[in-house]
């Protein structure tokens, strides 16, 4: 992960996609479904591992309004952008090699582990800082060419992430797989075969990009919620 230029990609590629992108919006919708099993007053502290520009922290602030928020990322550009978006505690950190000095009631990690060379160490380190719950979301199935260009080192095989989460001494509470067939394989294949098509999701979002994303968001409601290449795992720290 350290060899990939995340500073440049946060400056020139990722931008409004995290806030307005249809898949990211569905991520947050599914997060909300998973969080229904957690009482708000259980969560006093939250760590967002790979917090990016802070859009998920903004979401978590609404879901758990009393919690103290912490954001960690390898990119200084992302951290500085996040600081301008939300009042939280931020630090540069690579979860593969280091951990924060405290534990958290909820450790949240979305669209990160697929970028990590040593994902097993990262998940193990997340377990070390988890008091109660962890939520990990990532992509599985065939890796497309454009995904490699934004730093993916893997897409998980089906069932692989569950095994790694359990090996790290988490107990899995819920698993959601989403996106079949309209997002994956159809949309992901279109983006892969027509490289210029992915440019619509890059950079800041103007009115046209927001409109297209909004339409896609509602179209993607036709995806199955029990099958797909986006996987969400809600887990609890196993008692030792």
Overall description:
The protein has 240 residues and is an alpha/beta fold. 38% of the residues lie in helices and 20% in strands. It contains ten helices and seven strands. It has a seven-stranded mixed beta sheet with strand order 3-2-1-4-5-7-6, with helices on both faces. Helix 3 packs across helix 10 (207-219).
Largest sheet: 7 strands, mixed
Shape: globular
CATH superfamily: Vaccinia Virus protein VP39
CATH topology annotation: Rossmann fold
Structure summary, number of beta strands:
7
Into how many domains do the coordinates divide? 1
SSE diagram, text form:
Blueprint: H1 6-12, H2 17-20, H3 22-35, E1 45-49, H4 55-63, E2 68-73, H5 76-85, E3 89-92, E4 104-110, H6 119-128, E5 130-139, H7 145-149, H8 160-167, E6 170-178, H9 182-193, H10 207-219, E7 230-237
Parallel strand pairs: 1-2, 1-4, 2-3, 4-5
Antiparallel strand pairs: 5-7, 6-7
Helix pairs in contact: 3-10
């Amino acid at each position: 992960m350290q060899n990939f230029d995340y500073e440049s990609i946060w400056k020139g590629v990722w931008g409004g996609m995290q806030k307005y992108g249809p898949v990211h919006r569905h991520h947050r919708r599914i997060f909300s479904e998973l969080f229904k099993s957690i009482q708000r007053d259980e969560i006093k502290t939250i760590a967002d591992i790979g917090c990016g520009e802070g859009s998920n922290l903004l979401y978590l602030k609404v879901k758990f309004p009393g919690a103290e928020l912490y954001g960690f990322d390898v990119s200084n550009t992302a951290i500085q952008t996040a600081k301008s978006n939300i009042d939280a505690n931020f630090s540069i950190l690579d979860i593969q090699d280091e951990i924060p000095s405290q534990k958290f009631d909820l450790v949240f990690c979305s669209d990160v582990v697929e970028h990590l060379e040593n994902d097993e160490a990262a998940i193990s380190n997340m377990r070390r800082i988890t008091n109660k719950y962890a939520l990990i979301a990532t992509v599985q199935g065939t890796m497309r060419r454009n995904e490699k260009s934004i730093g993916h080192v893997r897409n998980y095989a089906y069932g692989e992430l569950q095994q790694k989460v359990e090996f790290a001494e988490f107990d899995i509470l819920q698993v959601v797989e989403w996106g079949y067939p309209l997002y994956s394989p159809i949309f992901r294949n279109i983006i892969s075969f027509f490289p210029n098509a992915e440019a619509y999701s890059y950079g800041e979002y103007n009115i046209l990009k927001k409109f297209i994303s909004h339409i896609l968001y509602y179209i993607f409601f036709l995806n199955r919620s029990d099958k797909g290449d986006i996987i969400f795992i809600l887990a609890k720290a196993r008692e030792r």
